[in-house]
Amino acid sequence: MKSNFTLILILLTIVSLSCTKKTCNTSIPGNAVPFEYDEKQQRAILLKGLLNDSIPQNVFLDTGYPGELCVSDNFRGQFGSDTCSLRLGRNLYYCKYIEYLDHNNKFFEYFGANTIMIGQFFFTNRIIEISYKSKYIRELTDTTGLDSFKCIPIDSMAHFLKIPVEIYMQGKKIEADVRLDTGSNGLLDLRKSAEAYSISKDSAQYVVDFSFSGSHQKYFLHCDSIKVGYAITPTYPVGFSSKMNLLGNVFLENFDVVIDLKHCNLYLKPNEQK
């Protein structure tokens, strides 16, 4: 009896340890699609998908990309009538607007040759939940059950998912409209210089920002808090003189996120993973 009890304890310990790995998650709903997300380094949402139900691909989820589907130009001519299907988990989606990216682009050097990208228009008229805590996405039929979330309007007239943000630093309040960008591994980037907001840049850290479209010099300054529905006190700095206004994964990973492009709303609720 004692040996059986010891065996049970060993098995329970193994199960407990295995479920601490990021590949094991028992809290994913049955209709959800798991993704890989390294919150310490890459901070990219990567799913597994099938093009035309036959070609395995890594799928980079980038709401900052103002398109539907982006693939390597090696696929050019392989899709009939320039349309294709993409299977994510149990769900099959049909993509009409395909952009072909040079296979030598740094995007493929960074993420691998077998990687495609889905963007803003992939989610048109859909409601998508992104769980950074449990590492899954899923499509919702409606927004029932989101009473505990804060709702932030998305500007439907913009060519990107534009939302308002407030930044508090050096005793000042900065208000800006930013792109909701799950393809950014940063906190917040602003196009304008710090001087445009009467912010001192004496303590600025200058960097060269390498993106898939080239390099660009910008600088970082620490802020007191950032508010989009909820306020957080980040340890990561805000970028100035950037290419565009972006709200990235360093902010979003603090929340359960629902992007409702049926009604143009963003829903956020702290996920308490930090």
CATH superfamily label of the largest domain? Acid Proteases
Task: Examine the coordinates and then state which fold CATH places here, giving the name of the CATH topology of the largest domain.
Answer: Cathepsin D, subunit A, domain 1
The level of helicity is under 10%
Q: What order do the SSEs take from the amino end to the carboxyl end, as H and E?
A: HEEEEEEEHEEEEEEEEEEEEEHEE
Number of strands: 22
Structural class: mainly beta
Mean pLDDT: 89
* Domain module tally: 2
Largest sheet data: 13 strands, mixed
Quick one: overall form? Answer: globular
Q: State the end-to-end distance.
A: 42 Å
Segments where pLDDT lies below 50 for 5+ residues?
A: 7-24
Using only CA atoms, what is the Rg? 21 Å
- Architecture (CATH level 2) name of the largest domain: Beta Barrel
**Percent of sequence in beta strands:** 35-45%
Name of the CATH class of the largest domain: Mainly Beta
Q: Enumerate how many helices there are, as a single number.
A: 3
